[in-house]
């Protein structure tokens, strides 16, 4: 029933390769099917002016898509002189999501910037960016802890995200582009490893959805995030 032949509750093949950038304090390449995102974390011993003097740390994010990450070449936003609205919305989402999993007191007055660059897109780039972005953040924080620069772990729980939707009348997990482009309902579920929700983005694309369908999507999201968190934990504790 699904174009990929996957079961309704089956994720795309997911892999996370860590330490792919020798200069970044934390880095990974996450692959969710044919969506590939390079995530790097940069540590700076400074914070934005609105945080300075509070004793709190800050985590922020930037997001972009390479010109040939899609089927036709996109113009670089730098050449246009400004970021598009979609880019701004997604990078704000990534920053919010990652900060939700950070103990900013434990992090101390320093900033970590997570850059998410989409190399290849086939649906779910924001979810892959959040999931891979947390891995890069975790690796950067591991270095802080190893150096003794933080006294307690600022990342008490992983943060991961997955898409779910109603495709051909059925609730499905982890939409690829063919499904996303035709789904009657699609959503992104961002969660802590504890199962607590950080953010849910749901929208009907020309067709409404019921409470039962919403519950079904939530159940699929629980399953998908659980699998992602297990992989995040595996690759960051090796």
From TrEMBL:
Q: Which Pfam families match?
A: RNase_PH, RNase_PH_C
EC id:
2.7.7.56
Q: For this chain's UniProt record, which GO biological process terms are given?
A: rRNA 3'-end processing; rRNA catabolic process; tRNA processing
Could you tell me which residue ranges the Exoribonuclease phosphorolytic domain spans? Answer: 10-140, 158-222
The answer to whether UniProt assigns keyword tRNA-binding to this entry is yes
The UniProt annotation places phosphate binding at 86, 124-126
Q: Which InterPro entries match?
A: ExoRNase_PH_dom1, ExoRNase_PH_dom2, ExoRNase_PH_dom2_sf, PNPase/RNase_PH_dom_sf, Ribosomal_Su5_D2-typ_SF, RNase_PH, RNase_PH_bac-type, RNase_PH_CS
Q: Which UniProt keywords apply?
A: Nucleotidyltransferase, RNA-binding, rRNA processing, Transferase, tRNA processing, tRNA-binding
Instruction: Quote the catalytic activity from the record.
Output: tRNA(n+1) + phosphate = tRNA(n) + a ribonucleoside 5'-diphosphate
Q: GO: which molecular function terms? A: 3'-5'-RNA exonuclease activity; tRNA binding; tRNA nucleotidyltransferase activity
Q: Function, please? A: Phosphorolytic 3'-5' exoribonuclease that plays an important role in tRNA 3'-end maturation. Removes nucleotide residues following the 3'-CCA terminus of tRNAs; can also add nucleotides to the ends of RNA molecules by using nucleoside diphosphates as substrates, but this may not be physiologically important. Probably plays a role in initiation of 16S rRNA degradation (leading to ribosome degradation) during starvation.
User: Could you tell me which NCBIfam families the record lists for this protein?
Assistant: RNasePH (TIGR01966)
Query: What quaternary arrangement does the UniProt entry report?
Result: Homohexameric ring arranged as a trimer of dimers.
Q: Which family does it belong to?
A: Belongs to the RNase PH family.
PANTHER family noted in UniProt:
EXOSOME COMPLEX COMPONENT, EXOSOME COMPLEX COMPONENT RRP41
Give the protein's recorded name: Ribonuclease PH
Q: Which gene encodes it?
A: rph
